[in-house]
Amino acid sequence: MKTDMHIHSDFSDGANSPEDIVTAAIDAGYETICITDHVRRESEWLGQFKAEMDRLRREYGSLIRLYSAMETKVMDFSGAIDAREEFFPMVDFVYAAIHRIPAAHGFMTGDEIEDTPGRALENWFRAMAAVLDNPRVQVIVHPGHVFHKRGIAIPVTLYTSLAEKAARRNVAFEVNLKYRVPGPDELVILRKEGVRLTTGSDAHSVKEMLAYAGWPDVPDKPAHP
Fold it and tell me: N or C terminus: which one in the chain shows less Cβ crowding within 10 Å?
């Protein structure tokens, strides 16, 4: 089943409209997609986004299974995400991502992560463990990318602990095709612990979405949430 559960539109930082994405996905033979856009607490467009997604389901629902999601950033060690309560009924799924690692002073800089990787890993683990307890969060997207892009290995013990918790809490981990995370060893851990997996390109344009279409090496045909 050709599925992409993470495609950004021009409601946030994508290049194409939701309708452009939907029609291109139908033409390319997708069966399921999820249009996913970044939100912040101050975002004011969620109502328009919901209305447009409802319209697209009415118009194209017989041709493709269409979901909506908001990608939110993890704010601190409490499990808080950058979204307001009234946002949650406006989307099908809530995704959480650690774009920046929380710290006592706010967020760690890139230099701090590279100079003190042990502290960065500890802070990341604390933030991940906390957000897994957030009842609003259903999917963790591009997990560990902040380390993978710097060549910093996540200890097996930390990843296993998070996988165990994700399985208990029924929170999915994304297999992110763009950033190639989780890595192969991490996927073994996730499968062993029974964590649900979802596949996403993290595309920011139709062209990018289609570049990832039909990739053969997604393990175990991860299912959407």
Answer: N
Q: Bridge partners of 175?
A: 199
For residues 225 and 223, give the distance between their C-alpha atoms in angstroms, rounded to a whole number: 6
Q: Is 113 helix (H, G, I), strand (E, B) or coil?
A: helix
Q: Give me 115's structure tokens.
A: 């100079």
Strand positions, DSSP E, 77-206: 93-97, 102-103, 106-107, 139-140, 172-176, 197-200
- Comparing C-alpha atoms, which of 84, 68, 81 is closest to residue 12? 68
Helix (H), strand (E) at residue 37: strand 32-38
**What pLDDT digit, counting tens, does each position of 166-192 carry?**
999 999 999 999 999 999 999 999 999
Rounded to 5 degrees, φ, ψ at 13 are -115, 20
**Residue appearing with tokens 């996540």:** 154
pLDDT at 90 over 80: yes
- Can you tell me the distance from the alpha carbon of 75 to that of 96, in angstroms, rounded to the nearest whole number? 10
